[in-house]
Every structure is written in C-alpha cells, then in structure tokens.
Design brief:
Layout lengths: L2 E5 L2 E11 L9 E10 L10 E5 L15 H6 L4 E6 L18 H8 L4 H16 L4 E6 L1 H12 L4 E7 L9 H22 L3 H14 L12 H5 L10 H9 L11 H11 L5 H6 L13 H6 L24 H4 L7 H9 L9 H5 L5 E6 L7 H10 L4 E5 L6 H4 L2 H10 L4
Parallel strand pairs: 4-5, 4-6, 6-7, 7-8, 8-9
Antiparallel strand pairs: 1-2, 2-3, 3-5
Length: 422
C-alpha cells in the first residue's frame, strides 16, 4: 500500500514494485524497486502528467525533496515528479558487498542486469502501475540521459516527451574511445584549476610526496595513496568543485608536515565508494556493447604520462575514471574485486541503443549539451543529437555538468524547447 507524507513544499508518496532481476526471465527471481512520487501541495488531486526523473550515476539514488536541486520546484509547476531509485540504489533492493552473493561469478551474473536496459524495463513496469497505458515524460541527467536514449530505443511508446541534460552518449563508442577522449578534457580542467589557484600546484605536489613517503591513514583505517588522492579530480565536473578542492587542500598540513585529521576526514568522504559501490563496479560496463572493457581507463591512462604521480613534475588529478586498484584500496569495494574483474572481462553485453529506431524517432526530445562537460564528450553528444530524429539540442557554455541541479532555468529552457516556445 502506498504511503503519503507531507513536508514543506512537497506531498510525497512512496511506491514499491517487484520486478524481474532478469527481464528476459520474467518468471525468475525478483527484486524490489522504489520510487517517490512528488506533487506540489494543493495539487494532489489534479490530473497532472507524470515526469520520471532518471538520476546520474550509475549507482546513485534519486534526488530527495529538499536536497537543493533547483529543477524540482520548476517541474512541479507542470508535473507529478517520479523520483526513481534505480535498481540496486537507495530504497530499492540494495546491491552492495553486504547483499550480493559471496561467489564472484554469481555476483557478476547478478550485476549484469543492472545497466540502462534493465532500468528502462523497470520504468515501464512502474509506468504501467502508476499511469496504465498513458505515456509519461522523462528527464535524464548524465547517466540518466544515457538511460533516456536507451528508453527511446527500447520503449518509445512509453514516452510523451524527453528532456536530457549532460547525458547524450555516443551510440557506438567503446570504453577505450570514451576514456581516450576524456583524459585530455581532464588535463584541461587541471589547467583551469591551477590557473585559478596557482599556489595549489605546490600543495598538491606536497600532499602526493607525503603520501608516497609516509603511511597516512583515512578514518576507516585504510591507507591513502597518492594515486587515490589524484582521483579527487572527479570533482572537477561541477560548478563549485574547484573551490571545494581548494578548501580541502588549504587545510591539508599540520605544522609538523603531517596531514591533518580534518583533511583526511574530508578526503575520505569524497573518495569512499561506500554509499555508491555500483558506481565503481558498473562504471565501465555502461559503455559496453558486445565487447569487454578490460579496465579501459587504466589501460588508456598509460597513453597520458602527465598523470604519473611518481614522475616528480606537476601533479595532475584524474577524472571520472575507475581503476582496478581502487578495489584493493577502498574497503567498501575490496570484497567486490573479483566480481569487478569478471564484469571487466565480460563480452556478452547486449546493445543499449537502436540506431534505426532513433533515426525514426517521433518522441519530442530536447537536450542540453554542456560545452565544457568533463564527463560526457561534447562531440559525441552533438553526433548523437543528429542521429535522433527531431531532437533539438541546446549547446551552452554557461553551465557545468551539474547545471540542472544548479539552476532551474535549464529545465525551463528544455520544456520551452519541446513546446516550441524557443
């Protein structure tokens, strides 16, 4: 039975639905998927269309009302918003080191069903539960945009309209292609960061040297290494990330030269995958279509020696890359190392996108493409925008990857675009 509760500005209803673990075997094992439906106070009984929100990730739960996401209040002017905790996240049946099968092969077989195609089929079952045959709208942010393109490929009949922000994927790129394009963007972000905070070049080098020479422990007891410290560059994609890293570095050292507890505590919060293990385990498989990824980010990194922390030159932070050694250094990931290796070696990945169906698309689609997006290649996004019939792109340098959550005008512009108002 659905439970409804109120909080200032929102009326929320909890929905749970059982879905097949493997949609190809509907009579097999099931898992539970959770969604929170949100409507503006006083509009609970209005016949509003539903807007499904697909969160970025993979492996991130949906935004919560009151989290400060700018787009939600704008959406509630026109829609009932459905915040889906994608399978394995949030209040859906969890998929973590604590819940997955202990046998790595069984865990890998389980997680092979946690990509965009399964998420879309979950959404279709949820739509049928909430709206019957009535199509709904979808808003996909980042990886949620990838899922939206999969939705347009697999079940466009379920969609009334689609909005995508920072999430138009290449339809054909391999994981190698993705990271080979990403590393130069990350180096450019480093240049912009150190241009804003030039003194941080020395600070970052000192931290890396300290970590190479001394055993510095994070609050959970695991050692912080220089290469793991470099992964803080994954923060570079959002509008406030440069400042966040700077404020972290400026309190890094004690007068003795050791790293401060404050620095180690905050670094741990930024570096641990305890709250989002699926992000690490599935990050490369989201790009796989018919071929194994074989730890693409690690292999391609060798082509960019500027990221070598041991070279003694300027330290450069890496970006949204997952490396196999993270599964040795992060306690939350360590039990999943063998499972992740099996997923990296897996080549039986089905296609996620249907180019022919996208070329014949009839669903109104608008997409924001961020010019300097750290995480999603602009050229790939433009090419995909051209491949989806009727898609109207908005290419902007005004926002970083988090534009949707930072400014309600992003969604406002996309809605107006689909309605033909701009």
């Amino acid at each position: 039975m659905a439970v409804t509760f109120r909080r200032p500005g929102y009326v929320c209803t909890d929905h749970f639905i059982d879905v097949p673990l493997d949609h190809g075997d509907p009579a097999g094992p099931t898992i539970e998927v959770y969604a929170r439906e949100v409507v503006a106070p006083g509009r609970e009984h209005d016949d509003l269309p539903r807007l499904l929100f697909l969160q970025g990730g993979p492996g991130h739960r949906a935004a919560r009302p009151g989290d400060g996401v700018a787009w939600l209040d704008r959406a509630l002017r026109d829609y009932r918003v459905v915040l889906l905790d994608q399978r394995g996240t949030g209040r859906s049946t969890p998929a973590t080191r604590q819940t997955l099968p202990e046998d790595p092969a069984e865990a890998a077989a389980h997680l092979a069903h946690f990509r965009a195609d399964s998420i879309v089929r979950d959404a279709e079952l949820l739509r049928a539960r909430l709206s019957g045959d009535r199509p709904w709208s979808v808003l996909g942010q980042s990886f949620g945009g990838f899922c939206t393109v999969t939705y347009l490929s697999l079940a466009p009949e379920g969609l009334r309209e689609a909005f995508i922000t920072g999430g138009l994927p290449s339809l054909t790129a391999t994981a190698d292609d993705v990271y080979r394009a990403a590393y130069p963007r990350v180096l450019a972000a480093n240049d912009r960061y150190f241009a804003r905070y030039p003194a941080d070049a020395d600070l970052a080098r000192r931290v890396a040297d300290r970590l190479a020479a001394h055993d510095e422990r994070l609050p959970g007891g695991d050692r912080l290494t220089a290469r793991r410290f470099q992964t803080l560059g994954a923060l570079f994609g959002s509008s406030a990330s440069f400042d966040a890293l700077h404020y972290l570095l400026e309190e890094a050292f004690l007068p003795s030269g050791a790293l401060s507890d404050a620095f180690l505590r905050r670094a741990d919060a930024a570096l641990s995958y305890a709250t989002q293990p699926l992000y690490a385990v599935l990050h490369e498989p989201i790009y796989a279509q018919g071929a194994a990824t074989r730890w693409a980010a690690e292999r391609v990194r060798a082509e960019f020696p500027a990221f070598d922390a041991d070279a003694g030159g300027p330290l450069r932070f890496t970006g949204e890359m997952i490396y196999p050694w993270l599964f040795d250094e992060d306690p939350a990931l360590r039990p999943l190392r063998d499972c992740a290796d099996l997923l990296a070696a897996r080549d039986a990945w089905p296609a996620l996108y249907d180019a022919d169906r996208l070329a014949a698309n009839t669903v109104p689609v608008a997409a924001a493409i961020y010019y300097d997006d750290l995480y999603v290649d602009r050229d790939d996004s433009v090419e995909t925008a051209r491949a989806i019939r009727g898609l109207r792109p908005w290419i902007t340098s005004e926002y970083a990857h988090n534009g949707l959550s930072a400014d309600a005008r992003v969604l406002d512009r996309l809605i107006a675009t689909v309605r033909g108002e701009v």
